[in-house]
C-alpha cells in the first residue's frame, strides 16, 4: 500500500480512538498543489474505470459514512466527476420504508450492490444499523425482530451479532468479486459548527440544514463511540475502513481519490484479448471494410 494512504487505514484487529486522528491533517501540501494532483488522479481513474467495465470480473463498492456536514455529497461529486456516469450508481439511504422493514436490515443494501464492471457509491449504508441505531436503539424496534420488542432487550450480544452479520455480508460479496472501500469522513465538532452556521447564514444553503442536525450533534460523544466500535469490529483485509481527515475538504477529496486509485491498481485490470478465431474474424471484417 502506498505510504500516503497507510495513515488513513484502520488496521484490522486494532482498537480505534478517533481522538488520535487529526481532522485538520493536509499531508503537508498546499491547497492548489492538492487540487492539481486530484485532477491528475481523476484522469487515471477514468482510464481504470474503462478497464473495469471491459474486464467484467469485479465491481467496486464505495461506502461513505460521516457526521452531518462532513462533506460526503461534495466528496462524491468532486472525486467521481471524472468517471463515466453510465458505469456508476449512487444510492443515498434514508429511513427504511415499510417494505424494507419487512426484510432483514441488509436486504435493501444487497439489492443496491453494483453489477460487475460497475462502481457503486453508497451515501450512508448498512452501517447506519450499528451507528444511528446504536445511538437510538428504539429504531431497532421497527424491524420487529423476534425477541427484541423492547429496548431493554437490545444488549451487547445483539450488537455483536449485527457486526458479525456485516462482516459475513462483506466477506461474501468480496469473495464474489466486489472490491469494498469504506470511507469515514472524520470532521471535528468545531468544523461541523462552522459549516452549520454557514448553512444558516447563507439563504442558498438553508435547505441543507435541519433542526434534527442539532439534536444529533448533542449526542456527539455517543456517535463517536459508535463509530469507533463499528470500525474496530468491521475493518478487515477484504473490507478496510479508512478514516479521512475532513476539516479541509480539498484534502479529504484528494485522500479519497488516492485510495480509489490504489484499490483499482491492485486489481491489475487489462482489456480482454480476443481468442485466435475471433481475432481472425475481426481481421477479415477489417479487410472487407477497407475494400468497401
TrEMBL record:
Matches recorded under Pfam families: PPK2
NCBIfam families: PPK2_rel_1
UniProt family annotation: Belongs to the polyphosphate kinase 2 (PPK2) family. Class I subfamily.
Top-level lineage group: Bacteria
Keyword Transferase found: yes
Keywords on record: Coiled coil, Kinase, Transferase
GO-annotated biological processes: polyphosphate metabolic process
Listed GO MF terms: polyphosphate kinase activity
Residues of the Polyphosphate kinase-2-related domain: 30-265
Keyword Kinase belongs to the record: yes
Entry protein name: Polyphosphate:nucleotide phosphotransferase, PPK2 family
Coiled coil region boundaries: 31-58
Amino acid at each position: 500500500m502506498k505510504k500516503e494512504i497507510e495513515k488513513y487505514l484502520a488496521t484490522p484487529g486494532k482498537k480505534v480512538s478517533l481522538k488520535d486522528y487529526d481532522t485538520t491533517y493536509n499531508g503537508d501540501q498546499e491547497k492548489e498543489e492538492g487540487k492539481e494532483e486530484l485532477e491528475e488522479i481523476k484522469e487515471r481513474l477514468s482510464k481504470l474505470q474503462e478497464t473495469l467495465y471491459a474486464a467484467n470480473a469485479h465491481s467496486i463498492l464505495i461506502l461513505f459514512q460521516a457526521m452531518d456536514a462532513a462533506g460526503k455529497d461534495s466528496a462524491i461529486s468532486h472525486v467521481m466527476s471524472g468517471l463515466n456516469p453510465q458505469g456508476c450508481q449512487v444510492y443515498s439511504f434514508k429511513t427504511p420504508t415499510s417494505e424494507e422493514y419487512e426484510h432483514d436490515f441488509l436486504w435493501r443494501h444487497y439489492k443496491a450492490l453494483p453489477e460487475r464492471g460497475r462502481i457503486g457509491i453508497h451515501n450512508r449504508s448498512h452501517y447506519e444499523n450499528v451507528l444511528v441505531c446504536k445511538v437510538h436503539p428504539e429504531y431497532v424496534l421497527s424491524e420487529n425482530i423476534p425477541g427484541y420488542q423492547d429496548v431493554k432487550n437490545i444488549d451487547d450480544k445483539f450488537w455483536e451479532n449485527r457486526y458479525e452479520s456485516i462482516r459475513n455480508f462483506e466477506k461474501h460479496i468480496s469473495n464474489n468479486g466486489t472490491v469494498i472501500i469504506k470511507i469515514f469522513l472524520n470532521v471535528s465538532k468545531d468544523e461541523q459548527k462552522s459549516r452549520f452556521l454557514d448553512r444558516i447564514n447563507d439563504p442558498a444553503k438553508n435547505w441543507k440544514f435541519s433542526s434534527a442536525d442539532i439534536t444529533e450533534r448533542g449526542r456527539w460523544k455517543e456517535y463517536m463511540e459508535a463509530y469507533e466500535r463499528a470500525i474496530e469490529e468491521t475493518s478487515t483485509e477484504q473490507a478496510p475502513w479508512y478514516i479521512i481527515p475532513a476539516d479541509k475538504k480539498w484534502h479529504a477529496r484528494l485522500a479519497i481519490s488516492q485510495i480509489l486509485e490504489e484499490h483499482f491498481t491492485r486489481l491489475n485490470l487489462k482489456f480482454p484479448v480476443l481468442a485466435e478465431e475471433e481475432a481472425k474474424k475481426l481481421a477479415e471484417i477489417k479487410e472487407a471494410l477497407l475494400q468497401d
